[in-house]
Amino acid sequence: MTAIEAARMPSRRLGRLWTRWRTGLFGTWLNSAITIIIGLLVLWLLPPLLRWLVLDATWQGTSADCLAQDGACWAFVAAKLRFIVLALYPIQLQWRPELVCLLLAILLAVAAMPRFWRRELIVGGPVVIFLCCLLMAGYPGPSRVSPNQWGGLPVTLLVWAVCFAVSVPLAILLSLARRSRMQALRLLAIGYIEFMRAIPMVAILYFATLMLPMALPAGLSTDKMPRAMIMISLFWTAYIAEIMRGGLQAVPIGQEEAAASLGLGYWRSMRLIILPQALRMVIPGLVNQAIGFLLATSLLAVIGIVDILNAAKAAATDPNWLGFYKEAFLVVAAIYFAIGYGGSRYSLWLERRLGRCGPH
Amino acid sequence: MQLVIVAGVLSIVVVLGSNIATTMARIGLTPGFGFLERAANFEIGEGMIAFRAGDSYARAITVGLLNTARISLLGCCLATILGVALGMMRLSGNVMLSGLVRWYVEIVRNTPLLLQLFFWIALAHALPPPRRAITLLDAVFLSNRGVYVPAIVISDLSLGAALVVVAVFGGWIWLVRRGWRQKRAGLSAPLPASLLSVLVVSAVLAASGAKIGVEVSAISGFNIRGGLSLTPEFAALLVGLTVKFSAVIAEIVRAGILSVRREQWDAARALGLRRGKIIRLVVLPQALRVITPLTTSNYLDLVKDSSLAVAIGYPDLMNVVNTTANTTGQAFEALLIVVLLYLSLNLAVSAVMNACNRTVALRGERPA
Predict the structure, then answer these.
(1) Which InterPro entries does the record cross-reference, listed alphabetically (chain A) (predicted)?
(2) Contacts (Cβ under 8 Å, ≥6 apart) of B20
(3) Nearest CA in chain B to A301
């Protein structure tokens, strides 16, 4: 469609929408054919899916009721939702993981709003995350809960938050080292980044379970969870450092020279001039990477940490509710999808917003 | 300053290393790679070379490496084909088609690969037994023992004939590449060359008495015989990787084609080119410059993510090395091997893809 045709089109909104749909569905004979084929496909697939999801589904009852019906077993989800979300955490103390989830959700919401991007957040965020860890462990109280009993959504969120919070400052230092004028430092940084980026995350998790206990001094042996957190942080640092490098490279060289000519030293010019500009540019990329990391935390299941995916799998091995994997996985998929899809929309919005009021 | 940093890093490495050494000494392990020659007492379900309990650990790791290479190579090919098709569909003028692909991409990209693999393996195990296998076009059989596809079987192939085939294939590639280059000057000859190659190859094979046939599987008794059988784990991993990465590639293809500016299409149309020619001659060469580097990192991710095989029980490199580490206790050496092998796999993929990138990159323009 040429610009002239577009200009001649009716300007009313409804009319435009109608035209778009009409040309989009039945514009040419090929389009019509595609539409009809897809329509038939949908008509063929949708009814059984709908029957399974809704019509034949069992909403309440026991596993026997579910097996009597052909559809999905939502009664299973209702009965095991607590287990899927919180796993083995002691029931009488379950307000703790609930509070942790709430706190992390609030932190995420606050951190997502550019209005709150202030110094306080840089200090407050890690403090909140640290408090969450203490709360989960019940640290300064009489009823401790060992990390082996943690599970479900709080584990997924906590590992994500802790490792991200640890990785970002390390990554900033690493990306500065990567661009340093000191040859040895730069080579070390390049070596570290390339090494980490070349190995799979599963290998990193095996490092955490098999190697780290051997490498740490005898007195420092810890649970599986903190060890996994250490290794994942070191792993993610390399990925974030590469994103940071992109931001640093995008800051014009003149900025650094101007800072130097004002008499600012290296650290002050980085802190006051370069990094604020670089960080601003990498935030959308960082958000996308963070979504990738959230999905990657599901690999904790491989080393037997009960994150939400593993909890869902375990829920379907309960003798009372044996084998309802599809339902369990659907629930977890929906949770991941909600966060991931929301995050990617947010990243797009942020990109537009930052682009609009940016320096250019 | 630099000396201090290097000394600091070195001392950390030394401390960690000595800790490992003392721990190993305490448990009673001797550091070193001697364990590779010892007999491994586990079985490996499938592989391109045979493995039985009692073979050496080195052989076990080789089997794992080959399995990783096989699944990665197949995964890359299938994901690329599906991804390009999906990327094209996403750009189609049909609202329904592009909307459908959009939601496919969103759903696949925003759920963890491991979850998808769990789903696929559950699906593979939930298939009917071989006797009641789901049959597609009488050629592909889906059952809970595995997926059976037709196999190309070459029998009675003599060495001379094989050499001729390889030589003809090499010549064909050379001719096509030359034709590709000369096309810019208005010459092209890939079609006659291909026809000629096919003719020569079939003549040579017929003369040497070799038989090429397609062997289709068939249900016999309680099992399915013949054809190429894929284990449920392999099939699930392959489907999982293909689906996940096809979504990413679809987005890359879409971004690449959209990166070609509108004016290029208009200019090509003004020259009187038809849509197919516009895409092939004007849009694709420019889009490939954007697509190829992005695909490279995507392939690297695929190779690394194939290690999720451990979660569904496909004996890939990571799985075998993990078993090795657990049975011998030589975790340090085993992980060192796995890291080195993944590094070399990555380097190999990068090298191949960089070579591809050079052929599509902008020519005649020297970077300033």
Answers:
(1) AA_ABC_transptr_permease_3TM, ArtM/GltK/GlnP/TcyL/YhdX-like, MetI-like, MetI-like_sf
(2) A211, A214, A215, B332
(3) B311
What is the value of pTM for the model shown?
A: 0.83
CA-based angle A104:A106:A112, to the nearest 5?
Answer: 100
How many inter-chain contacts (A to B, CB under 8 Å) are there? 145
Chain A residues with beta carbon closer than 8 angstroms to that of B115? 298, 309, 329, 332-333, 336
Strands (E), A169-251: none
The partner residue sitting opposite A184, judged by closest CB among B5, B112, B338, is B5
Is residue A93 classed as helix, strand or coil in its secondary structure? helix
The domain segmentation of chain B, as residue ranges, is: 32-150+216-362
Nearest to B350 by CA among B305, B316, B303: B303
CA–CA gap between residue B292 and residue B280 (Å, rounded)? 16
pLDDT at B220: 67
> Does residue A21 belong to the interface with chain B, where contact is any CB pair within 8 Å?
yes
Residue A345 CA to residue A266 CA, distance in Å, equals 37
User: Closest approach of chain B CAs to the CA of A279, in angstroms?
Assistant: 23
Classified as helix, coil or strand, B274 is coil
Span A206-234, average pLDDT: 82
Question: Is 0.90 exceeded by the ipTM?
Answer: no
- Grade residue B190 by pLDDT with cuts at 50, 70 and 90: low
B112: nearest CB among A200, A326, A336 = A336
Select from 3.30.499.10, 3.40.50.800, 1.10.3720.10, 3.40.50.2300 the CATH code of B32-150+216-362: 1.10.3720.10
**Nearest Cα to Cα of residue B288 among B300, B279, B297:** B279
- How close does chain A come to B109, measured CA to CA in Å? 8
Q: Tens digits of per-residue pLDDT, B299-318? A: 999 999 999 988 888 888 99
Which domains does chain A carry? 12-55 (no CATH), 68-356 (1.10.3720.10)
What pLDDT does A31 receive? 77
User: What percentage of chain B reaches a pLDDT higher than 70?
Assistant: 86
Provide the b/e sequence for B240-262 (b: ≥16 CB within 10 Å). bbbbbbbbbbbbbbbebbeebee
As given in the structure block, the two tokens for residue A126 are 């890690």
Higher pLDDT, residue B149 or A9: B149
Chain A residues inside the 8 Å CB shell of B311: 301-302
SS3 B129: coil
> Which carries the bigger pLDDT value, residue A27 or residue B124?
B124
